Amino acid sequence: DVKVTQSSRYLVKRTGEKVFLECVQDMDHENMFWYRQDPGLGLRLIYFSYDVKMKEKGDIPEGYSVSREKKERFSLILESASTNQTSMYLCASRAPDRGYYEQYFGPGTRLTVT
Amino acid sequence: DAKTTQPPSMDCAEGRAANLPCNHSTISGNEYVYWYRQIHSQGPQYIIHGLKNNETNEMASLIITEDRKSSTLILPHATLRDTAVYYCIVRKAQAGTALIFGKGTTLSVSS
Q1: Cα Rg of chain A (Å, integer)
Q2: Digits of tens for pLDDT over chain B (111 positions)?
Q3: Subunit contact A108:B99, Cβ cutoff 8 A
Q4: Residue in chain A lying closest to B58 (CA)
């Protein structure tokens, strides 16, 4: 089974802090994604990565950056956390020979910024 | 992207088959039907997808009508752990961005 793990289930940070969210997958997938999920807005794509050191902006990249130094690890960075970044953050991975939406998700990190 | 319609809730007895319907009457020829589920406070879980043929995997079966305007996700022997919100989405196969989940169907499995 594909396993995608995220570093924290719950996180509370203060406004202005730099926040690191880590995601690791164990299936050697090239493609990895970061989403945020908010009530009424569904899943919105922040960034995705087709392979190591490659990254592409999604729908809402402002205020975020990413790092993909190793194939199994994809990090999301909130440069200066703000209250409107309070959300559930979800990481996903996908094998490139599968349908684009055949994505495997981690358990999520519920981030609260105060 | 085609819009989907699902019943808001369904109940199922443990051990029985759960049949979850989805209407997608405006689906176009190159759009796939995908099913995900989300258990409370967890990330979404991919279940299955199909274009026009019925599909089966270790989790579920997907039955798509011949006109492709509706489909049914079948969990053959529902367990308590299958209690979740089930989402049917219709998307083209090529890369896109947002995964838009509607309200889905809340399936409650009881013993």
Answers
A1: 13
A2: 668 999 999 999 999 999 999 999 999 888 899 999 999 878 889 899 999 989 999 999 999 999 999 999 999 999 999 999 999 998 876 655 556 777 899 999 999
A3: no
A4: A1
